[in-house]
Amino acid sequence: MKIRPVRGTHDLFGEEIKKFNIIKNIVSKIAKLNSFNEFQSPIFEFTDLFLKPLGEHSDVVLKEMYTFKDRNDEQLTLRPEYTTPMIRGAITNNLLNDLPQKLYGLGPMFRRERPQKGRYRQFNQINFEIFGTDDYLADFELIFIANEILKSLLPNNNFELHLNSLGSKLNLTKYKSVLSKYFQDKKRFLTNESKEKIYSNPLRILDSKYNEDQEVCDLAPRINEYLDQDLKNHFERLKKALNLCNIKYKENHKLVRGLDYYCSTVFEFKTNDIGSQNTLLGGGRYDGLIGALGGPNIPGIGWAAGVERVSMLMDQSININNSLVHVALMDEKYKDHLINLINYLNKNSIEYFWNFKYNLKKSLSKASEDKIKYIIIIGEDEFINNSYTIKNLLNGKQSQKRLDEIKNYLNDKS
Ligand code: AMP
Q1: All residues at 6 or more sequence positions from 175 whose CB lies less than 8 Å from its CB, including other chains
Q2: Which residue's C-alpha comes closest to atom 18 of ligand 1?
Q3: Which residue's alpha carbon is at the smallest distance from atom 14 of ligand 1?
Q4: Which partner from 139, 142, 179, 328 sits 20 to 30 angstroms from 300, CA to CA?
């Protein structure tokens, strides 16, 4: 048997795991700054949690969920997204007694999509959610945080915020029927894929990737002509708040998002730098969803970003930590000396690397290859004098030190 990874999955190691951890650190730092609490849910839930809220005609439910029967015949699904599990968790842990709730999380999601660059079957998402307020400042805060995170991780990258309002659920239902009628009249110009959605999910035709469909969509009735006045105001105030912080956006009347639970504000951050899978982050309001899942009838809003897509755009050259020290042992005879050093370095939180090679030349060339500043050498001399030689590989200077002097020496000279 030849072992292989499951299609659409990938291992994280080397530079990739370093980037993953940088993303995690930035996310938790910005979450803390804005008083969002971390929430981790299990990776599987009862299937019913996802079916209705995501929409029985959505691609995720129709084609992409990993659903299986447990031994006692219960239908379970690997979570394809984080919003519904977070709401389930907030309800079952009684978090909604204290509103608003600001939660965030980062973890793996599962969708059986056709794998390609930037699209996997197991991928990681960052999620931010606010439960319990319909204030436009919640929309602003979430978009602001998304922008801060992307700016910190991708300082050299161009990404663009696309913004739209879908109005209330009622308004959206009206708009869907207007749109469906319009597409029925233009059916002959649409691709087969879009024809299938005319009755079940006309909104999704708007973000079709085919030119034929887009030509029809360009002349379609626009959602902003159907917005209720209070949500129109909500949207205008949000845009003003973004202007105040100089966050640029593009109004995109075709932005509808893929899942059924959205209404009112929807947004995406897009980039032109990673090919066809160009959405880094997407989200919006889902007023009504928490009530539909058995919670109180309170509004909610949130977003999800793809960790792998952000990671693909991050600079390849991650700064090598200057404090990292290499250790070279010239002979197996001095192993006890090394054990004392390892103990000391750990106690003093000094990162080190050692390669089990017992060969000074190999250790030196590895250290210079890794652009390491200091190497600590243990040989005959050091063994006899009960000391350690510290060599600065940048200027060639070296000095023999006792174990308890190493930390100060590295600090003084760095
Ligand atoms: P969605 O929940 O579909 O709105 O996705 C939110 C974000 O998650 C997207 O903008 C992507 O960055 C990321 N994402 C969604 N699906 C995948 C996937 N199959 N592979 C990698 N990233 C994904």
Answers
A1: 166, 167, 221, 223, 226
A2: 119
A3: 306
A4: 179
